[in-house]
Design goal:
- The complex is a heterotrimer of chains A (112), B (112) and C (511).
- Chain A is mainly alpha-helical and 112 residues long.
- Chain A has a two-stranded antiparallel ribbon with strand order 1-2.
- With 112 residues, chain B is an all-alpha fold.
- The radius of gyration of chain B is 19 Å and the shape is elongated.
- The N and C termini of chain B lie far apart (47 Å).
- The mean pLDDT of chain B is 87.
- Chain C is mainly α.
- Chain C has a domain of 232 residues.
- Chain C is built from 21 helices and two strands.
- The radius of gyration of chain C is 22 Å and the shape is globular.
- The mean pLDDT of chain C is 90.
- The chains are: A mainly alpha (112), B mainly alpha (112), C mainly alpha (511).
- Chains in contact: A-B, A-C, B-C.
- The interface between A and C is large, with 50 and 69 residues.
Chain lengths: 112, 112, 511
Amino acid sequence: MIGLTLRTGAGFWNPVILSFSLIVVICLVYFVRSFGEKKYKKGTEQTDPFFSGAPAPQKVGGGNIYGIFFTYMDEYYVLLKRMHTGVINDYVYWFVLTLTIVLVVLALGGLP
Amino acid sequence: MISIQFLAAIILISLGLSVAVFKKNLIKIVMAVHVIGSGVNLFLVSLGYRAGGIAPIFTDASKLQMVLPTTQALTLTSIVIDFAVVALMLSFVISIYGHYGTLDTQKRRLKE
Amino acid sequence: MIFLAEHAPAFAIAVPLLAAFVTPVLGRISEKIRNIWVIFSLLFTEFLVFILGCKVLDEGVYTYALGAVTPSLTSPVGFPVRIILETDAMNALISFMVLSIAIITVVYSWKFIEKYEAQDRFYSLLLLLTAGMMGMSFTGDFFTMFVFLEVVSVSSAALVAFFKKAESFEAAFKYLAISSIGSFFMLFGIGLLYGHYGLLNMAVIAKEIILHYSFLDVVALSLLGTALLLKLGSVPIHMWKVDSLQEAPAPVSVVCIATSLVGLYLLFRIGFSVFGLVINSILGWILVFFGILSIFIGVAMALLQNNLKRLLGYSAVAEVGYILLGAGVGLSAMPEVNGFAFEALSGGIFHIVNDVLDISLLFLIAGSIYYITKKRNIDELGGLAHDFPSLSVLFIIGMLAISGIPPFNGFASKLMIYESVFYFNPLLVILGVLGSILMLAVFVKVFACIFLGAPYEGEVEEVPGSMMFTMWVLAFFILFLGLFPQVAIDIFIAPAAEALVHPEVYIGGVL
């Protein structure tokens, strides 16, 4: 199995063994699951999603997901939105700024 | 002492950059790109200048007097590329004007 | 066969270039003949690059001279007039990857652009773009690099505007404006190098630079480096890339990803081979800085998007950050790269291959979703897994691979980068892993919005077989590289990294 093991410098990684053990674990889980009670009936209200007793929404839009994350990261995202204006003048501005940064850093630290 | 042609090239390039950053008209941005290209071409062609040199078309001149024609070839190629880029950009500007009805860079739909 | 192998670098540029101009003529006769011609010329080029790659892996650097065959054949002033095409394991790998992506793109485009006019021009621009990328990867000459860079810029800007909508013209204009400004600054840097050394050949400049390293070279390096950072779309000059990836047709977005791959190669070539022996660790730190910035801002902006292709564009920006991180750590250890720095560099190069496979698969899936529903916003989609189970399986493969979940290929290369960068600076690894987790969050959101939920109620078309076939081919390679990463490392990644960290071999190939 030497040829199948990835040597990463600090350790190793063998995906074949991992996938094999993953398959074994899945089989085991499936086996244990088959002992469960067979109360599940298709087409009854058992299969409806539960949404705290209220009628569940049929569709959750992309904007609704991670809403709380955006609320708490608001300041960061205000900065990012100010950066991504989409105006071509600002693209050139960022290019000139990057060029200046690279030039200054290299001139300070890149000379022999 | 800095030669006047290099100074002119630097002035052209910085002029083009400042127009590209500060002017909000698409045609002016195309002009800025062309001016930057011309500045770089002026810089390239003045690199090949040798005082008292002879153009390499007169093959009976002595070898050391002849000018190496590399920069002239480079500048010619670069002018052609500049022309192609500007032509394509102007055709994009025509289509943008047809769809948006304005040449203002601030009126953009792709942002964030 | 030996003749082909000998002239392969020149043919690899010439065949797509000539085929590009024949394509519109054949398109007048019959669409079928044109399609066969395009795919055949690309397959022939890939075959050439393959035999060239085998030759290079066997025998080392291969130098092909256009013009004076030996340096002693000179012009009247004692200067050899020649253009060098120099091939080593690194650019053989890059050009092979680029051609494979081009072939997959062409097969995908057969059905994808069937209903649009101007197909002849689409295919000939695609071939022109391929020729430009081949030229960029094979050239050993700074000015030829600039010329092919502009060929790539012009033809891909024209391809971005293929749909002829308002937004696509806007994206194409922005792309062309900013990338030509970048190219002219690169030409300025090349002019500085020419003024200093009177030469344009990369290898010879690399040799001269050891003796005459000065402030002028630093200015030239920063001009070239920033222009290439612009071309490969690193934060903070990535906005044009996201715009054009969003508005281009899906196959063109995939080829645009391949162009940023070639930009990365050129950055490595200039950083390692030309300036590697003189510059100290500061250049590596600059790459690491922009890499971390790309990972963070790319992922954070991707989380915000609702347009599927714009979201994928931002995650492509973030993935480039990992490559810059790995390669920057390798570069900061120049000129003696061994141990962890070498592992980091090979992880970076391996991640180039993995990144282009994963992102291409996701873009092609996005294109198929647009093809079947004509919608691009993920809020308007939902429940596609009921009707298209195979598409959702492909999407799961792509999303797990790109966010670095074992046992897919993204994990193998990210593990190499993390474990070796840890010995360089543990903080960078923490930032990298955090970016990777956020990437998974991005794609979980996309998967939930597009594939899960009540069955989709709009009108849908079937996904054509040829499009499904290309996506399964990409998925197969993703699985293969994920399960057997060491095979890839041994065969082509380690030689490529070796080629980069030994600039003296590259210099010796020309002299």
